[in-house]
Amino acid sequence: KQEVTQIPAALSVPEGENLVLNCSFTDSAIYNLQWFRQDPGKGLTSLLLIQSSQREQTSGRLNASLDKSSGRSTLYIAASQPGDSATYLCALLQTGANNLFFGTGTRLTVIP
Amino acid sequence: GAGVSQTPSNKVTEKGKYVELRCDPISGHTALYWYRQSLGQGPEFLIYFQGTGAADDSGLPNDRFFAVRPEGSVSTLKIQRTERGDSAVYLCASSPGGGVDTQYFGPGTRLTVL
After folding, report:
1. What is the pLDDT of residues A25-48, one digit of tens each?
2. Does the pLDDT of residue B72 top 60, yes or no?
3. Which residue of B has its CA nearest to A36?
4. Is residue A31 within 8 angstroms of chain B, CB to CB?
5. Which of A21, A72, A111, B94 has the fewest CB within 10 Å, making it most exposed?
6. Residue B102: its pLDDT value, please?
């Protein structure tokens, strides 16, 4: 059974710092991997989606990488801002499956 | 256009009661998903609809949970004889055709069972 782990569970950084969030998974038979942002009381906002054939995706200050062979993905956030404070979730779509497998999330706080 | 909407946003009920949670998907999306998110955890899959039929209900925890989508649009998640352990945020998502299509999530319904 696929297991998705995110480390750290919580992270506090001062504004302006670059940071890396980690996601690891046990079954590399995935179709794609997605990073979401979740704000309190809100739904999930998709940030980046990486297909299994890709190594990374970039959007603005965000860069996500995927290494299927090692079962790892990272989300890099450059020049963090207080508005980046949220919970970040990684989710996998396994080959042949319909539903997403989610990690437990990393709660990020960016201190002004 | 409008995104996925869910009602109510919050629901408080007593142990043993019956509850219904509603999801309005994006218009035209044939695939609809229900997930459950417990405190401090990531969302966990419950059930997937393709059109009117439940294509995969392997995530439903027990027979107290049931979901319908009679006209292939709005879906209702029904929980009988609620237990305190059912307290969670219930998220709904829809996608154009299912499979590898991007899933769009609603804001969720926070269910509290006292």
Report:
1. 999 899 999 999 999 878 899 999
2. yes
3. B105
4. yes
5. A111
6. 86
